[in-house]
Amino acid sequence: MPTNIGQIRAKAAWGFAQGKSKEYGQYVKKFPMYIKTNGLVNAVAFAYSKRGKPNKPKNEWEQLYDDIQTYFEVHDPNENIKGLLSQKKSLMAVLVEDVSDEQLRTITAETLALFTWLKRFVSND
Length: 125
Prior knowledge:
α2 packs across α4. With 125 residues, the protein is an all-alpha fold. The chain has one domain: Peroxidase, domain 1, CATH 1.10.520. It is 71% helix and 0% strand.
């Protein structure tokens, strides 16, 4: 059982990286720069907008968006938005409607830290 925040992030990233495509790995490697350039809300909105059609297999953007949401639903180490997500709200809705500027900065830092680990585990082929 992970005992510190680094282990929590690493375990989550390891699970997310398993069985994902090379293209997913390319998106994971680019996504932190999207966050740094445009902000977390804009970057997540971009991934959200690129989701596939209902009743079709998930595309890489949808997997990436879902992985971020799952991380905060299950592993949110600082309990920033876990409660809001457990109310069946989407990550996008929570980021747009429910977080303060301070919470957004914390969530952004946590997302970037998660992606630091995720980039280590995705396919490098």
